[in-house]
Specification:
The protein is built from eight helices and 16 strands. Strand 3 and strand 4 form a beta hairpin. By secondary structure, it is an alpha+beta fold. It is 21% helix and 20% strand.
Length: 343
């Protein structure tokens, strides 16, 4: 159920024994009782409170094409979503990491004490009480933005590929903003394809930005969006398109409920397809060199849309593809997700 895995990691016996002694008998019982249903164990852990002081993990192995892994902390299995390069880097550091429970009590974080970087368990995100949607934490990092290596479909505006460093972590919607959430905040639903869990569409850039502000967030920058969309992958798509997104080849000419396709490496859904997503930036050419926390041009005529939609061909459903349109534009293939701080 809750902790189904694709890649298994086991804590070696001697480490587990040492950690159990450190945690004491009470935690040992709670962690070791594997017969107890996962939800009951989580409820108990929630009642006891985290972080668990001194809990130790050990990294054992990973699979080259996988971004998910499972660790055991004294018998309590946690499924984590970690970009592949992070998984490799964690090989030696995992034993030093500590585990914290997310404030919502449904997700776990592994925190690397050396860097403070956080890797979330995919048992849930962090709930924003204002719109009822879950948000995923994205740690700071450096990536190559723009045309992916070996991608022959790139347009000129996806070049040059360039290094971008994001110095601040941020939360971003696990899914696109749904009609249900938009209705809750704005008291209207402008969408053509009605469905509570379908993405809201027919919203202008200004309306999307206004919604995000009302729920204490903002639109992601174009760089933040692409970094999150890649989910640790350097490919043009973070998975097989039909498996991860709704596009003209499988959408039946309409939107679909969010979260129905496979998530990317950061546990986010529909970053390709379903609806185009407004981002904060004005549209413009990429800078020639490396940049840090880019915000895009200071002014412009068009805002950027990312990710493709139910109506695009496969070439438009790539993580580096850039759409552009006037900010006042409303269409049944334009939606959005919010980003920012979530306290």
């Amino acid at each position: 159920g809750m902790f189904e895995t694709t890649v298994q990691f086991e804590v070696r016996r001697q480490k587990a024994d040492a950690a159990q002694r450190q945690l004491g008998d009470e935690y040992e019982k709670r962690f070791e009782d594997a017969a107890r249903p996962a939800k009951a164990r989580i409820a108990e852990l929630k009642a006891r409170g985290f972080p668990v002081p001194g809990a130790r993990l050990e990294f054992v192995d990973y699979v080259a094409d996988a971004t998910r892994m499972t660790v055991k902390i004294n018998g309590e299995e946690l499924r984590l979503t970690v970009p592949l390069q992070k998984a490799q880097a964690l090989h030696d550091e995992m034993a030093l990491a500590r585990v914290e429970r997310d404030l919502e009590g449904t997700a776990y974080m592994v925190v690397d004490p050396a860097t403070g970087e956080r890797y979330r368990g995919v048992a849930g995100g962090k709930l924003n009480a204002k719109d009822g949607l879950r948000y995923v934490y994205i740690a700071p990092g450096t990536f190559t933005m723009g045309c992916s290596p070996g991608d022959s479909e790139c347009g000129t505006d996806e070049k040059p590929a360039h290094q971008v460093t994001l110095t601040k972590g941020f939360f971003i919607g696990e899914t696109e903003v749904t009609q249900e959430a938009y209705q809750r905040v704005k008291r209207v639903d402008p969408s053509s394809f009605k469905g509570a869990k379908n993405p809201v569409e027919n919203v202008s850039w200004e309306e999307a930005a206004s919604y995000c502000k009302e729920v204490g967030m903002r639109l992601p920058t174009e760089a933040e969006w692409e970094y999150a969309a890649r989910g640790g992958s350097t490919e043009g798509r973070y998975g097989e398109l039909a498996a991860v997104g709704w596009y003209d080849g499988n959408s039946d000419k309409k939107t679909h409920e969010v979260g129905g396709k496979q998530a990317n490496g950061f546990g986010m859904y529909d970053m390709l397809g379903n609806v185009w997503e407004w981002v904060a930036d004005w549209y413009g050419a990429y800078p020639p060199g490396a940049s840090t926390d880019p915000m895009g041009p200071a002014t412009g005529e068009n805002r950027v849309l990312r990710g493709g939609s139910w109506s695009v061909s496969s070439s438009g459903a790539r993580v580096s593809y850039r759409g552009l349109v006037r900010p006042s534009n409303r269409s049944n293939y334009n939606g959005f997700r919010c980003a920012g701080e979530l306290r």
